[in-house]
Amino acid sequence: MSSAIEDRMSAQGTPAKWRSRDRPVHHRRSETMTLGNELYEIEEGFWLEGKEHFLDHVDEKCLLAFPQMGEMHGVHSRAEVAATATSANRWQGLTMKDRQLLEAGEDFAVISYRAEVTRADGEPYAALVSSAYRRRPDGWKLAFHQHSPV
């Protein structure tokens, strides 16, 4: 899936927007792909792609922290999280700003960013988002995901 999102660099050298491109099921980092690029590419898929992306990239169990009423909160299975990725609740026009990355060892990393996006119903949405990933034999898997609407 290609997107019109273009790569741009902020004054600090942190990519302000990232390009979406066709993705293999398991992300294998090449010498030119940084951990940040890899994780943000996976993260973008959670906003814009469907159930298969969730099944491929969510860990066996995942802690979700959503403050909105009716949203999932707590520890959920991969299948439960993937079931939320329906066409009725997909997003459009995603921008990820102020991207941060914490590498907390070889097999654990946390990213944080400001998301600006439009809901399927046309409503704009903005939030500070954090996600934690664990490296598994078949790639990085989402273990924690949190939104704080702004």
Explain this structure to me?
The protein is of the alpha+beta class and 150 residues long. The chain has a single domain, classed as Nuclear Transport Factor 2, Chain: A. The strands form two sheets. The chain has a six-stranded mixed beta sheet with strand order 4-3-8-7-6-5. It is globular and about 40 Å long. The N terminus is likely disordered.
Please state the overall shape, judged from the principal axes of the Cα atoms: globular
Helix coverage percent of residues? 10-25%
Class from secondary-structure proportions: alpha+beta
Q: What is the H/E order?
A: EEHHEEHEEEE
Q: Which ranges are low-confidence, i.e. pLDDT below 50, for 5 or more consecutive residues?
A: 1-27
Number of domains: 1
What does this entry show, briefly?
This protein is α+β, with helices and mostly antiparallel strands and 150 residues long.
